[in-house]
């Protein structure tokens, strides 16, 4: 009613009295016509009811907005959790559980990719294969738990001995490998000798005994497009 009165240009101080007159007139007209329209609310009552309705609508909108925000937050948390789980599964699938080095699957993928890059960009690529010497005898003498501990230490030393660009991995059993991009024969032998010496100087204490191992390393180098070669 107030909005309608405002649209016709009625000043605010005249709106309430006119609204009351309209309500009274409606009641009188209904009585003459024999109609029942009930008690007409006053201007103040109409305004109060409108205000209460607006407050209720506003509160309902706030609650819906808060509920939607909670749903969006929960969806975001679930998405992040799913991403974390996918990353964890991928890491488990490409990481050796004992040494925490990349496993054979990861090694195969990286070697194939580095060979393709070497041939495409015509740069040298070296692959080194490592074998722990007489490891069966080591296990028979000291036990498989000592052998596992030794392999863990070999993996740690390898990881600390290679360049950042290199890719060390556990190939299987007591065999390890290092993919060395941009490295030719002489430089590869130097890097392999550093790994060999670091492992040779390594000492592992197990059940009060100080244990050590040595490794043998072989390297193969290919020089980009000068020769065709494959991972095999």
Question: What does this molecule look like?
Answer:
With 232 residues, this protein is of the alpha+beta class. It is 60% helix and 16% strand. It contains seven helices and six strands. The strands form two sheets. Strands 2-3-1-6 form a four-stranded antiparallel β-sheet, with helices on both faces. Helix 5 crosses helix 6 and helix 6 packs across helix 7. The longest helix has 52 residues, at 43-94.
| Total strand segments | 6
Residue stretches low in confidence (pLDDT < 50, at least 5 long) are none
Shape: elongated
C-alpha-based Rg, rounded? 41 Å
Largest sheet properties: 4 strands, antiparallel
Q: Identify the strand order in the major beta sheet.
A: 2-3-1-6
Distance between the termini: 89 Å
Helix vs. strand class: alpha+beta
SSE arrangement, N to C = HHHHEHHEEHEEE
| Assembly status | single chain
Helix content: 55-70%
- Separate helix tally: 7
Strand content: 15-25%
Layout of SSEs?
Layout: H1 2-7, H2 12-32, H3 43-94, H4 104-121, E1 124-132, H5 135-142, H6 144-161, E2 167-172, E3 175-181, H7 185-200, E4 204-206, E5 209-211, E6 215-223
Antiparallel strand pairs: 1-3, 1-6, 2-3, 4-5
Helix pairs in contact: 5-6, 6-7
Quick tags:
four-stranded antiparallel beta sheet, alpha+beta, 232 residues, two-stranded antiparallel sheet, 7 helices
